[in-house]
């Protein structure tokens, strides 16, 4: 049984009750076409996806009468497969997790959070970074400094001071006072109380800046001869490559 012709016009909002619809539903999810049972979409009553197809819907249809959901269609197949067979995806985990959160499918969310990829990110890495003061703000500060220095250049650099303990923070300040540079342009990370090392934090910084679309690398910052501290104990240079 096909979807009623009253749903055919482009962009028309559906106003009738979904109880009158065919049990077979056609979907257009971000340009990807799917056909499934209405009962499959409503499998988890508390989910946002079930709410889309319950009572008086607030959905629009495309020119062919398919219900349109403005989300990435590529990953919806994994959502649909879980609803059909309780099969938890083993690929594209991070992206499927975002979609599971959007559709608020709690059983899938919980199972994905137990996967190594999501568990490692949420429980291990993110919990560590939450203990590094102003981590997110410092990432944005690094990007602003790098962009400001990118005029007519292939690369721009940002000096980062990384300190793990309060004692290191004091030594770093002494070292910073001896450095021949604009101290306002040095971004400081730490101290923190957690197991991960300075190198772990440096890799987290690189990972999160790259996630924003930038090409970046880092290396120890070696000061000029005669510098009375080992600058590479605290200071690192992050290179942004623009072209």
From TrEMBL:
Q: Can you supply a Gene Ontology BP term from the record?
A: protein homooligomerization
Family matches, as Pfam families: BTB_2, KCTD_C
- Tell me where in this chain the BTB domain is found: 23-120
For this protein, the record's SUPFAM superfamilies field holds: POZ domain (SSF54695)
PANTHER family of this UniProt entry?
BTB_POZ DOMAIN-CONTAINING PROTEIN KCTD14, POTASSIUM CHANNEL TETRAMERIZATION DOMAIN-CONTAINING
This chain's protein is named: KCD14 protein
> What gene is it encoded by?
Kctd14
């Amino acid at each position: 049984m096909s979807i009623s012709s009253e749903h055919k016009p482009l962009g028309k909002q559906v106003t009738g009750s979904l109880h009158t619809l065919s049990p077979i539903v056609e979907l257009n999810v971000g340009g990807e076409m799917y056909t499934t049972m209405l009962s499959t979409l409503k499998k988890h009553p508390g989910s946002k996806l079930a709410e889309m197809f319950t009572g008086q819907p607030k959905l629009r249809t495309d020119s062919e009468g398919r219900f349109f959901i403005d989300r990435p269609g590529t990953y919806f197949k994994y959502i649909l497969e879980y609803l059909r067979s309780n099969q938890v995806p083993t690929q594209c985990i991070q992206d499927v997790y975002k979609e599971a959160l959007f559709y608020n499918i709690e059983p899938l969310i919980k199972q994905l959070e137990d996967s190594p990829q999501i568990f490692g990110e949420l429980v291990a890495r993110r919990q560590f970074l939450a203990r590094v003061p102003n981590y997110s703000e410092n990432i944005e500060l690094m990007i602003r400094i790098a962009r400001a220095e990118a005029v007519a250049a292939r690369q721009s650099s940002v000096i980062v001071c990384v300190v793990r303990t309060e004692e290191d923070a004091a030594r770093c300040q002494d070292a910073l006072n001896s450095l021949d540079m604009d101290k306002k342009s040095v971004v400081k990370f730490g101290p923190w109380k957690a197991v991960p090392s300075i190198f772990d934090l440096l890799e987290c910084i690189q990972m999160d800046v790259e996630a924003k679309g930038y090409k970046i690398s880092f290396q120890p910052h070696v000061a000029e001869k005669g510098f009375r501290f080992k600058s590479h104990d605290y200071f690192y240079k992050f290179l942004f490559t623009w072209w």
